[in-house]
Design goal:
By secondary structure, the chain is mainly beta. The protein has a single domain, classed as Sandwich (Immunoglobulin-like). The chain is built from two helices and ten strands. Strands 7-3-2-1-10 form a five-stranded antiparallel sheet. Strands 4, 5, 6, 8 and 9 form a five-stranded antiparallel sheet that branches. Strand 2 and strand 3 form a beta hairpin. It starts with a helix and ends with a strand.
Length: about 170
């Protein structure tokens, strides 16, 4: 009987070892990007712009650079914004640019600051462009925008229109 118990103990010990592995750590998936296009209009601001900046408009591309783990979950995020504007009065200077939560016609608080300094971008002839790269955002911010891009808008601000001069909803690029 002792031999049977000893044999069972050896067998159980051996079985327990077969479940032990030194699997290599999970490696991250390759970096991923998500791109959005935004058509900014002064008429889309709430309320719409009715002063001398009302003729302005802009188009923007927002690119999210995402690091993901092997399960596909985002572990790190940053973004880049490139914007081209036209139709503004000569000498218009931007004061801010942000992404806000809010559906069309609904204003929301600042969600992601693009990092534009007051007066950093001016339109001497009423048109111009800027690019900002490596804008840090949290994984939660990235996931919120990625999960519902139409629920967020980008807008730019001027001294004449400090609450926003042109705005557009984020649309996933095809």
């Amino acid at each position: 009987m002792k031999h049977v118990i000893r044999a069972l103990a050896v067998l159980m010990f051996g079985l327990s070892l077969t479940g032990c592995t030194d699997d290599p750590p999970t490696s991250p998936s390759p970096a991923a990007t998500e791109t959005f296009v935004v058509n900014l209009s002064t008429a889309s601001e709430v309320p719409p712009i009715a002063n001398d900046e009302a003729g302005g408009s802009a188009t923007a591309t927002i690119t999210f650079d995402l690091s993901k783990d092997s399960g596909g979950y985002t572990t790190n995020a940053s973004m880049s914004v490139s914007l081209t504007a036209t139709g503004f009065p000569n000498g218009t200077a931007l004061t801010k640019a942000h992404i806000h939560p809010g559906a069309t016609g609904v204003n929301g608080g600042v969600f992601v600051n693009v990092g534009l300094a007051d007066g950093e971008v001016t339109f001497p002839s009423g048109a111009g462009s800027f690019s900002k790269r490596g804008i840090t955002l949290t994984v939660d911010q990235a996931n919120a925008i990625l999960g519902n891009p139409a629920g967020f808008y980008l807008n730019i601000h001027t001294a004449r229109n400090p609450d926003g001069v042109a705005r557009g909803q984020l649309t996933r690029a095809q």
